[in-house]
Design a protein that fits this description.
By secondary structure, the protein is of the alpha+beta class. The protein has six helices and nine strands; from the N terminus they run αβββαβββααβββαα. 21% of the residues lie in helices and 34% in strands.
């Protein structure tokens, strides 16, 4: 079960403390960054993700040192940031960004058996929405793939939607101020060069720009 969100200490006015806000950020993101602690170094790795109810799923190679470390249950942090625009102020100090971000704290558990297969289906549905017909993983491929799950128990969400907040003394400067929105969209599909059949991209793939 999801617990109450952690208190944001830096810019607490930007915190959104509802579970629906957390779900919205995780459900729109395709990539998260996960901290991988080790005795001699600290790394941050990008991973594909999918939310499955009250947990977040990631997958990678069982040969990956990062996934081997995370599978031991070490404490870590998963972060997601959705950039929505750049805030252009009359001063460099007040210029900033509009964004939605989430941090999830806890430990991953390695999934196996039916739980692993079900999690891979969730990841496939998230990262390849609407697609059918692709071959499912073979036993050898399943063995080579690690699937990890982290419960959504300790988390925080920040949302920045503000306009420039210039100092009063800067308001008379003849300098443009405002927001430059940033939007993400899918481009036209590019057919693989080794495709052996005269096939067009499936309707589901053509619909991705609409979903995006």
């Amino acid at each position: 079960m999801s617990r109450d969100p952690l208190r944001v200490r830096r810019l607490p006015e930007k915190q959104v403390a509802t579970r629906s806000a957390l779900d919205a950020v995780l459900d729109q993101a395709l990539v998260a960054h996960v901290a991988v602690p080790a005795p001699d170094r600290l790394a941050v790795v990008p991973v594909g993700l999918a939310r499955d109810g009250d947990q977040v799923l990631i997958h990678g190679s069982t040969a990956s040192q990062a996934f081997q470390t995370l599978a031991t249950g070490v404490q870590t942090c998963l972060t997601v940031t959705l950039l929505d625009g750049v805030v252009v102020a009359r001063s460099q100090f007040e210029s900033s960004m509009q964004y939605r971000s989430a941090m999830v704290f806890g430990a991953f558990t390695a999934l196996s058996g039916e739980d692993k297969s079900a999690a891979l289906a969730v990841l496939a549905a998230r990262l390849l929405p609407g697609l059918t017909g692709a071959r499912e993983p073979s036993p050898k491929e399943l063995t080579a793939t690690a699937v990890l799950a982290m419960p959504l128990e300790a988390w925080s969400v920040k949302v920045s939607e503000s306009e420039p907040e210039d100092a009063p003394d800067d308001l008379d400067r003849p300098v443009w101020a405002g927001v430059v929105p940033l939007s993400r969209s899918w481009a036209a599909p590019i057919t693989a060069s080794d495709l052996r059949f005269p096939l067009k991209p499936p309707v589901q793939v053509q619909d991705w720009p609409v979903r995006g």
